[in-house]
Amino acid sequence: MELDSLYQEVILDHYKHPLHKKLLPSYTAQVHHVNPSCGDEITLNVSIQDGLVENVSWDGVGCSISQASTSIASDLMMGKTLDQALLIVEAFSKLMSSKGNEKGDEDVLEDGVALAGVSKFPARIKCALLGWMAFKDAALQSGKN
Amino acid sequence: MKPMFTPAEIRKDFPIFAKTMRGGNRLVYLDSGATSQKPISVLNAEREFYELHNAAVHRGAHLLAEEASSAYEGARETLAKFLNAEVDEVVFTKSATESINAIAYSFGNSAPGSKFALKAGDRIVLSELEHHANLIPWQQLAKRTGAEIVWFPIDTEGRLDLSKTDELITNRTKIVALTHQSNVLGTIVPIAKLVEAAHAVGALFILDACQSAPHFQIDVKELDVDFLAFSGHKALGPTGVGILWGRLEYLNEMEPFLTGGSMIESVTMTEATWAPAPKRFEAGVPNMAQAVGLAAAVNYLDSLGMANVALHEKELTSYALKKFSDLDGVNVIGPKNNIDRGAVISFEIAGIHPHDVGQVLDQYGIAVRTGHHCAWPLMKKLGLVGTTRASFYVYNDESDVDALISGISEAKKYFKV
């Protein structure tokens, strides 16, 4: 079924048991992102010290895709250098605009490749990107602080 | 009364129902609250206008200009009859959103002291049910004038708390602007007493009829409201055309909103005076083909009979509410009984986000709306991030409700709830 390419088991797992979904009290930047067309909202905290992503935590409401995607992104970014993290965000954005033609590099995106199928559903791409864009925004702000 | 129609026969008039949807399924269209589908007669009316009569209306001495003007003004007559209004009271806009903005901006442009002008301390009365289109134009007007917005709260089933009427509609009230039927919950607002209350304090009553005019008979004389707005595309008509209806004496006293060609009486290099309504509010070459298309839509509805349309939707809603009440883990948001209630059912499934519900239903060819439905304050009041909404119209029948119910079961299986 076409639906299975969207909702892979790993996505449903992340949705039911999201990682790092509890805002940590200390952070170097905090952002709040909303998806005005559907009402999804997340608050995301990052701690970046000396160019290293030490912690990512978040909270929010949204569909399975946005929640799972934010869970995957937050886990993936932890422990990466800021430069590496931004390259990963870029790779994920490229995957989302691939219209179903790319599978994604599992070495770079890890569980993120499970979201490749989302790129076939234009209405859901913004759901998948919500957490990643929030991370990117927070990471760039953190650099400025 | 005209004989009752059969939705399965109606669907044959709508080309889109021949389309094969995802998973090889037929189209189960339950999103008419967002926009309705269009019968072939509407598509033909638009096409015919362009093919045979296209010219700019009210200009030019040639045959096509005559034909275009007569088609456009003929459409106005059809719409006037549909609303039991005077012909000159019917203004074509591009959308209901534009209609409400036209009223709000016109009021904002009024000279201080005029009937339409607002000042600090004046009140605009709304309700928690409002769609953004009947909320934000008033917020903006309030900001520009210093007026204050107050609103009717709703109860847990989404009915207005009318016990607040005397508290809300007072001598300070200048405008009461309410939805006739909630686009999210289906609640029909019993406006008669509220119109009386507004008029008793000299306030103007504006009715957002987007979800009512397509579904049951609207008679502006009987409703006794002062202004009314609805969109063509929710009433089987094309996009790009809406209706602004207002009492003629008001329209002719009001300042225009959009200015330019067509809406003037005379012009010098430094000044202009305004044409009477409706032209005063129709600047520029208007949406002629769309107006003609909307007239064809209204003729289609008339051929079914608005009383039949209303009865059909009422019966279908009863059937759907019954089916929903048998479902485990599914909660209908809004009135649970079928009194003062339109053919809109918002619901939530425990453990599945509305977008995911919509996605699974789509796999079965079922089109529903998901999210906050352009009524974010209402969602916050109800403590919801969004709902899944099924809305019914003339082409829907019990088989569509059955498809929805079985789609909901599939969604629950898929997400293991």
Automatic annotation (TrEMBL), chain A:
What biological-process GO terms show up in the record?
Answer: iron-sulfur cluster assembly
| GO molecular function terms listed in the Swiss-Prot or TrEMBL record | iron ion binding; iron-sulfur cluster binding
Q: Which residues form a coiled coil?
A: none
Q: Where is the NIF system FeS cluster assembly NifU N-terminal domain?
A: 7-127
Check the record and name the InterPro entries matching this protein: NIF_FeS_clus_asmbl_NifU_N
Q: Which PANTHER family match?
A: IRON-SULFUR CLUSTER ASSEMBLY ENZYME NIFU HOMOLOG
What is the name of the protein in this document?
A: Unannotated protein
TrEMBL record, chain B:
Q: Where is the Aminotransferase class V domain?
A: 28-404
Q: Name one Pfam family in it.
A: Aminotran_5
Which UniProt keyword terms apply here?
Pyridoxal phosphate, Transferase
Q: Which reaction does it catalyse?
A: (sulfur carrier)-H + L-cysteine = (sulfur carrier)-SH + L-alanine
Which GO biological process annotations does it have? cysteine metabolic process
- The answer to whether the entry has keyword Transmembrane is no
Q: Which cofactor does it need?
A: pyridoxal 5'-phosphate
EC numbers listed for it are 2.8.1.7
What PROSITE patterns would the database entry show?
Answer: AA_TRANSFER_CLASS_5 (PS00595)
Q: Which GO terms describe its molecular function?
A: cysteine desulfurase activity; pyridoxal phosphate binding
Q: Which family does it belong to?
A: Belongs to the class-V pyridoxal-phosphate-dependent aminotransferase family. Csd subfamily.
NCBIfam families on file = sufS
Name the record gives this protein: cysteine desulfurase
